[in-house]
C-alpha cells in the first residue's frame, strides 16, 4: 500500500507538501498540486479519511512523549519516527522533558497531560518500566504503548524489536567471519535492552557449540560515548586482545573505534567492531559501522495504529499484546573475515 512518502518522492516534493494538498491548502501552487494529484493517481494512493478529518480540525488526538535525553541516539530517532508516522495518521505529537527525581515531577507530567490535551502516551525505555508514572497515566485514563519494556503490563500493550534475536544475529555474523575471540561492551544495567543483547550474544556461542568468552572479555557501559571509551580501553589492553567487539549501541561502538585508532589498531584488519541501532553516527564515522538497524518508523506506525484503535477506557487484561517488529542487519566496513 502506498504511503504519503511514496507520493512525495514520485511528485518531487516533501511529505509536508503532500499533506497540504490533502488538506486543500490554497497556498500550494497549481502546478505543484497537479504533480501531487497525478502521483496519487499513479500510485492509487488513498488517504486515510480519519487522518484527513483530524488535520481539518474536526477531531484531534494528541499523543504525548516524555524524553529524558532528547539528544540521545535512540530517543531522538524514535521521536523523529513518531513525527513522520503522525503525518500519515493525522495525530499530533506533544513532547515534554521528563526529569526524574525533580520535586513534583509527577505533578509536572499531570499538568502536561492537561495543558497539551493528551489522550494517549508513548513511553520509551526506561520510563516504560517506571511504576509511579504508569500509575498516574492509569489514574488519568490515558491510553499508552510501552516501547521495549522489561516486563509486560496488564493495562498497556507494547511494541518492540527483539533485541535478543538481533544480538544473536549480529554475533552469528562475527562468528561466520571466523572470529571466536569476541568481546562485548554491555549497555546500562537498568535497561532491559542491555540484558537482552547480552543474552543474545551468549546464545550465539551456545548454538555454535563454542565456549562463551571469558569474563574479562566483558565490560559495562551506560550507552554513552564516555563509558564506551573506558570499556574499550579495558578490553583492548588485555594480554590476549579480542579480534572483534560487539558493542550494545552505536555511540559506544564509535568510542571503541576511537580507542582502537589511538592504539594504532586498524579496523577491520586488526579488529572488527559492530554496533547496534544504526544511529546517524554509525554511517558518519570511518570506517562505517556494521550494526543492527532499529525499525524506528515501523515501530512508530504500529504504535499509532494501536493508540488510534483504542477504546474510551483503559482496562486491565490478563494478556496485553506484544508487537514484535523485524530488525535488519547492516553490514559495513568495520568488519572483515579473521586473517589466517
Chain-wise SSE layout:
Elements lengths: L3 H8 L3 H8 L7 H14 L5 H7 L6 E6 L5 H17 L2 E6 L7 H11 L2 E6 L7 H9 L3 E5 L10 E3 L2 H14 L5 E5 L5 H17 L9 E3 L4 H12 L7 E4 L2 H13 L9 E3 L5 H5 L6 E3 L2 H13 L13 E3 L3 E3 L10
Parallel strand pairs: 1-2, 1-3, 3-4, 4-5, 5-11, 6-7, 6-8, 8-9
Antiparallel strand pairs: 10-12
Helix pairs in contact: 1-2, 1-3, 5-13, 8-9, 10-11
How would you describe the overall organization of this protein?
The chain is of the alpha/beta class and 340 residues long. It has three domains: 4-47, 434 Repressor (Amino-terminal Domain) (Orthogonal Bundle), CATH 1.10.260.40; 62-161 and 296-309, 3-Layer(aba) Sandwich (Rossmann fold), CATH 3.40.50; 163-293, Rossmann fold (3-Layer(aba) Sandwich), CATH 3.40.50.2300. It is built from 13 helices and twelve strands. The protein has helices at residues 4-11, 15-22, 30-43, 49-55, 73-89, 105-115, 131-139, 163-176, 192-208, 225-236, 250-262, 280-284, 296-308, and strands at 62-67, 92-97, 118-123, 143-147, 158-160, 182-186, 218-220, 244-247, 272-274, 291-293, 322-324, 328-330. The chain has a six-stranded parallel sheet with strand order 2-1-3-4-5-11, sandwiched between helices. It has a four-stranded parallel sheet with strand order 7-6-8-9, with helices on both faces. Strands 10-12 form a two-stranded antiparallel sheet. α7 (131-139) links the parallel β3 (118-123) and β4 (143-147). α8 packs across α9. The radius of gyration is 23 Å and the shape is globular. The protein starts with a helix and ends in a 10-residue tail after the last strand. Residues 49-60 have low confidence and may be disordered.
